[in-house]
Specification:
The strands form four sheets. Strands 3-2-1-4-7-6-8-5 form an eight-stranded mixed sheet, sandwiched between helices. Strands 14, 15, 18, 19, 20, 21 and 22 form a seven-stranded antiparallel sheet that branches. The termini are far apart. α2 links the parallel β2 and β3. With 549 residues, the protein is of the alpha+beta class. Helix content is 33%, strand content 26%. The radius of gyration is 31 Å and the shape is globular.
């Protein structure tokens, strides 16, 4: 290789065969060209064929691939630091040795950095084999994105293009003692120091692979190791970014991800002492950094779990997790325009967690409402020529439900494809709904964990199918919720209307499991019969005329 390469790609390697081969092939085949590329691969004491595979590529491409072998260090930080010491490119790029790049990735990112004079370029990443990668940052190309008002804090892996002059100016290196998350301090400081950060979103640059044996180091670390790593990263960030909204913007990620993952589904089954240690560690970090701004920006489930851990309410925290696993989200308590998720500890004076923690703060909750809304009973009520559909529907809401606009309607047309999954829909501001038809009554459910809406809706003399839907106002939003049959027998068809013009109504469950009321005329009016007969006669006459010709 002659001259300075545009980019040095750092590959820290430990036992990643056969994924390593695809990784190296994706680098060698980059459209930027091998004359502009330097690959620095550090074998961190691999015990499989990874070291030999690196040597094979170095022999094939001696002007491009540099290989360093060293004893195992226990993580990717030390080999990455070793590679930085020998890298010579204008930019440096890090890739996991089990991942691979899109063919044009480096060319596009280097071009973006040069055109925008950026010190950091984030190329679009996607996950493969079920690996999750946050996508909010990749909506569009951005020439200058901020760490403090974008989704960048949720994309803190070091798999980015960094200007090497900046890396060396601030002597950015990876903390070698961290078992997980060692790339975060490097990335956070680089983003704080960078003059400009750009995003390449219109091309998939990076494919992050979840190995079939789930042996990625992140998945192997234990709870306390992850807690200690998260604490050190958060304290490090606090030393870089002064207290206030900017720091909150970064640390919200750690409460939402790193700390929230410590109080997930496995928490109730953990050893009691480990549970206490996790709550104590989360509490220390909450004391230092869990501001009102971070609290209100989180979803209510994670917010409640962090707050219960902070309060040392181990039993209530375990109950909140296990109950949600078994029964789904708890019911809402509606009080005027406010709504609260009734998780354990809600308004318990022994715990002292503020109501605001349990409040739905600008949060859409269609899934919770749809999952908990179900039909308990339905039937027909006839008075003379009139017929009404009657239904009792359980809704996961408590409190001032009648004041929350609880109503059952029969609505023509299917739910739009834009409806929020798994079936409820949050209506947009300014929506208009027709006046409620029929009678509505609400009472608490027998178990005290929900409300039951009793409705009587008169049927109109019209034909067609009408979806049975509940409408609720929760936390400032109106939700449209299709009612599900849940295996309940549907009432038999009923006839109503005048004897000379009768209608038939039936209730059924459609293929999506939603309750539908279907109405139809028993037979068409006389004028329609005459019109059809005349139409048939005209068609016959025309047919005969054509045959004669």
């Amino acid at each position: 290789m002659s001259g300075t390469p545009d980019v040095s790609v750092v590959v820290a390697v430990y036992n990643t065969m056969p994924y390593l081969t695809e990784c190296l092939n994706s680098l060698i085949g980059q459209s930027i060209g091998r004359e502009r590329l330097e690959i620095v691969a550090v074998d961190d004491g691999s015990t499989d064929d990874s070291g030999r595979e690196l040597d094979r590529f170095a022999a094939l491409y001696p002007d491009t691939v540099k290989v360093i072998h060293q004893p195992n260090s226990g993580g990717p930080a030390a080999p990455s630091n070793r590679a930085l010491d020998v890298a010579t490119g204008r930019f440096v790029y890090f890739i996991g040795s089990d991942d691979h790049l899109g063919e044009e990735a480096l060319e596009r990112m280097v071009k973006c950095a040069d055109e925008n004079d950026a010190d950091v370029v984030v190329g679009k990443m996607v996950g493969t084999n079920g690996r999750y990668v946050h996508q909010a940052l990749y909506k569009e190309n951005v020439a200058d994105v901020s760490l403090y008002d974008s989704a960048l804090p949720f994309t803190l892996a070091n798999t980015k293009l960094f200007r090497r002059d900046m890396v060396e100016k601030y002597h950015l290196r990876f903390p070698e003692h961290l078992p997980v998350g060692s790339d975060q301090p490097f990335t956070i400081e680089a983003c704080v120091r960078a003059r400009k950060i750009s995003v390449v979103a219109d091309y998939t640059c990076y494919y992050a692979v979840k190995r079939g044996d789930a042996s990625n180091i992140t998945y192997r670390a234990d709870h306390l190791a992850r807690l200690r790593a998260a604490a050190e990263i958060m304290d490090f960030t606090a030393g870089l970014v002064e207290e206030g909204p900017k720091r909150d913007a970064v640390l919200r990620r750690h409460f939402t991800w790193e700390l929230a993952k410590l109080v997930q589904d496995d928490f109730p089954s953990l050893d009691r002492e480990l549970q206490r240690q996790l709550c104590s560690g989360i509490g220390r970090l909450a004391d230092a950094y869990f501001t009102d701004g971070i609290r209100d920006a989180m979803d209510v489930k994670r917010r409640v779990r962090i707050a219960l851990a902070h309060a040392g309410a181990v039993d209530e925290l375990a109950e909140a997790i296990s109950s949600e696993q078994e029964h789904g989200a708890p019911p809402f308590v509606v009080e005027g325009e406010r709504a609260y998720a009734r998780y354990p500890g809600f308004r318990d004076p022994r715990i002292g967690v503020p109501d605001r923690v349990y409040e739905l703060v600008g949060e859409a909750v269609p899934g919770r409402l749809a999952k908990g809304t179900e039909l308990l009973a339905s039937g027909w009520e006839q008075q003379g020529e009139a017929l009404a559909y009657t239904a009792s529907v359980r809704v996961p809401v408590l409190g001032d439900v009648q004041g929350a606009g609880a109503a059952l309607r029969l609505v023509k047309g299917a739910m739009p494809k834009s409806a929020d999954k798994p079936g409820a829909r949050r209506l947009q501001p300014g929506h208009e709904l027709a006046p409620v038809v029929g009678e509505m009554r609400v009472e608490p459910a027998a178990d005290g964990a929900a409300s039951v809406l009793h409705a009587r809706v008169p049927l109109e003399l019209v034909t067609g199918k009408r979806g049975v839907r509940v409408y609720l106002d929760v936390a400032g939003w109106t939700y449209e919720i299709p009612v599900r049959g849940k295996g309940l027998p549907m009432p038999l068809a009923r006839r109503w209307g005048r004897d000379d013009d009768p209608y038939r109504a039936s209730a059924l469950v459609n293929p999506k499991g939603r309750v539908v009321v279907d109405t139809a005329q028993m037979y068409p009016p006389k004028r329609t019969v005459v019109r059809r007969a005349l139409g048939g006669l005209v068609r016959k006459l025309k047919s005969r005329s054509k045959r004669k010709k």
